[in-house]
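not sure who needs this but someone in the group chat was asking about CRAL-TRIO domain-containing protein from Larinioides sclopetarius so here u go. i didnt clean anything up, its just raw.
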Amino acid sequence: MKTPERKAKGLQELRSLLQRNTKSAAIDFYDDFLVSYLRRNKYRVKDGHQQILNLMYLYERENIFGGVPDEYLDLPSSKFLVLLPMRCQDGCAVILFRYGKWDPTEFSIEQLKQMLLMVLCQALRDPMTQINGFKVIHDLEGVTLKQMKYCTPYNMRLFYNDMSSKALTTQGKEFLPREIGYLTESAIKKCEEELTETPERKAKELQELRYLLQKNPKSEGIDFYEDFLMGFLRRNKYRVENAHQQILKLIHLHETENIFGGISDEYLDLPSSKFIVLLPMRCQDDCALFICRWGKWDPSELPFEQLKRMLLVLMFQALRDPMTQINGFKIIHDLEGMSFKQLKYCTPSNMYLYYNSTVNCLPARYKEFHFISESYLFKIIWRILNPMMSEKIRNRVYLHNNKEELFHYFPRCIMPKVYGGDIQETSMEDWIKEANKEQKEFTLRGQPNYY
C-alpha cells in the first residue's frame, strides 16, 4: 500500500539507482514520471528501475517515439485506435483496437507503432489510469492478409514485450565464460530460491530418491552417482517423484534406443560435426547457449544415427557442469541452408525421439528455443513438432525471420561474428573429442560433475 512516507522513500531510492547508472545518470526525471513506474511495479523499486532502463533501451533501438506527423491524423486509418470516453465500473480506461480499419498503404506500420506509443504515453499521464490500469479490446473484424502480413514475430514482440517491461537489458552485466569451475553467488541464490535447494533438503530428498530407485526393479541394482541424481532433483525443483519418473524414462530410453556411448572418432573431424556449437560465453542470465546450424549437417557425411549419438554426448557432457544444471540452456536452431536433404529425416518418429530424449529424459532446464531463417521448411517441421510440445515448452519458443532479430534476446558480446556478434568463433573440436571419450564410459550410474 502506498503511503506518503513510502512514496518519498521509493522515489529517493529510485533516483539513487538511476543516478548510479551511466545510461540514466544525466537525466532529470519528473517525479510524476517516476511515480508511475513505482505504481506499475507496486513500489518494488528495483523492478521500477529495471523497467525504466528497458524503456531507455527501447528508445535507443526503435524509432517509435515523438508522435506522428500531423497530416496522418486526419486519415481514416488513424481511427483504428480509440480511447473510450467513459471508464469501466472499476475505474479502468478502455482502449479499442479495430484492426480492420487500418490500411497499411495509407498509414504505414511505422506510423502505427508511433501512434500506439503516443496514445499509451499520453493516457498514462492521468493518475487515475496509472492506478486503475487499462482494459484492451482487440477487434479483428475486417482483418485480411493486408494487415496480417505485418504480424511478424519481430512486430508482435515489439508490441507485447518492448512496450511492456521485458526488453533485453545488459547494462553493467559481466558475462561469464561457459566453464568457470565454481558456482557463483547468483547461482547459489537461484538454487535456493528458485530450485528450493538447501543442505537439509538436499540430504533428505537424495535419500528418498535413492529409496524409490532401489524399490523399482528397473533401477534397483544401479549405484547412481550422487551428482547425477542431483541433476534430476534440480531439474524438477526437488519434486522427488518427478525426478524418479524422469530417471525411469531415461532408463527406458537406454533400453529401447541405441543412442548412448558416444560416436565413432573418425566422424569428429568431418565438417558436418561442426553443425552444433556450445558458445564459449554464457547469456546474461548465465544460461549455456547452443547453436544448431542444421544446414551445415550433411547426412551423407555424418549419418543420422551418429548425429543422434552426438547430440546426446554434448547434452550429457554439458550437464556435468552445476552452473548449467542450475541456470539451464538456451538453444538457437538456425535453419539457413537447410533443404530436403535434411528435412527427410524430420519424420514424426525422429522428431518425437529428439523431443522425448532431450526434454523428458535428460535433467536439463530449457529456458528458450529460437528458430531463425524461417521458411516453408520450418512450417513443415513446426507442424510435426508443435503437437508434441508441452504448453510450457511451446511458450518458450521464439521465431525469427533473420539473424539480426536475435539481438533483442542476446547481447552481441556473446554471439559469433558470423551472426553479427563480437566473438570469433572458436573450435569446439578438442572439447567434443574429450566429451566423446568420457561419454563412451557412460552407464546408467551417470557421471560425476566437473567440480
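also The radius of gyration is 25 Å. if thats useful
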